[in-house]
Amino acid sequence: MNKESVAWMSLLFAGLLEIIWATTMKLSEGFTVLTPTLWTIALLIVSFGLLAKAFRVLPAGTGYAVFTGIGAVGTVIIGAFLFDEALSGWKLLLVTTLIIGIIGLKQVTGGEKV
Fold first, then answer.
1. Average pLDDT rounded to a whole number, residues 30-47
2. Structural domain of residue 91, as residue ranges?
3. If pLDDT is split at 50, 70 and 90, which confidence band does 109 have?
4. Where are the transmembrane segments (predicted)?
5. How far apart are the first and last CA of the chain?
6. What is the pLDDT of residues 59-85, one digit of tens each?
7. HSE (side-chain half, CA atoms, 13 Å) at 48
């Protein structure tokens, strides 16, 4: 596996961990519940470590946009299913737009100077 592939995998896992730490942050009720608070902190550290690893190879703007996009899309989905947050037609359309943007950024990023 080449450096760029490893960077993209690191970025993917960083984004997935962002979904989990955002969820544990919600469960921490403003950092007033100890166990979810500790999970949030631990997952944040690992997530940002993976993001930093990806930044060694990928352009920062692309990497950060993909990272936050994965986190945003996943957190909206988790919020709808775990916390009964509204998932309107507009929200679905906008989340779909985010997904298209993430895929697009992956497709056009390659060989760019960092």
1. 98
2. 3-108
3. confident
4. 32-52, 64-83, 89-108
5. 20
6. 999 999 999 999 999 999 999 999 999
7. 7
Q: What is the number of helices (H) and of strands (E) in the chain? A: 4, 0
CA distance 53 to 48: 9
Averaged over 82-94, what is the pLDDT?
94
- Looking up tokens 């950024």, which residue turns up? 105
Does residue 25 contact residue 79 with C-beta atoms inside 8 Å? no
Our count of domains for the chain comes to 1
Residue 113 falls within a domain, yes or no?
Answer: no
**Residue 68 and residue 94: Cα distance in Å, rounded?**
14
Enter the tokens of residue 27.
């469960």
Residue 114 located in a structural domain: no
pTM for the structure as a whole: 0.88
Q: Which amino acid is at 92?
A: L
